[in-house]
Design brief:
Blueprint lengths: L10 E6 L5 E7 L8 E3 L3 E4 L3 E4 L2
Antiparallel strand pairs: 1-2, 3-4, 4-5
């Protein structure tokens, strides 16, 4: 039986500010679902995973 690869594992994505304060957190079923993180001055999004306002 083959084991799962690391990218098949569940985990958390966490958003921290420059002072290492946790701003937001989301559990994901499979880390491999995370492809691109888009950031602007007031917004962070990860397609189909998270959509966070920074205000």
């Amino acid at each position: 039986m083959l084991g799962s690869s690391a990218s098949d594992e569940s985990g958390y994505i966490r958003l921290y500010n420059q002072d290492d304060k946790l701003l937001n957190e989301r559990e994901v079923e499979m880390v491999q679902l995370i492809e691109t993180v888009d950031c602007s001055d007031d917004h962070v999004s990860i397609k189909l995973i998270a959509d966070w306002s920074l205000q």
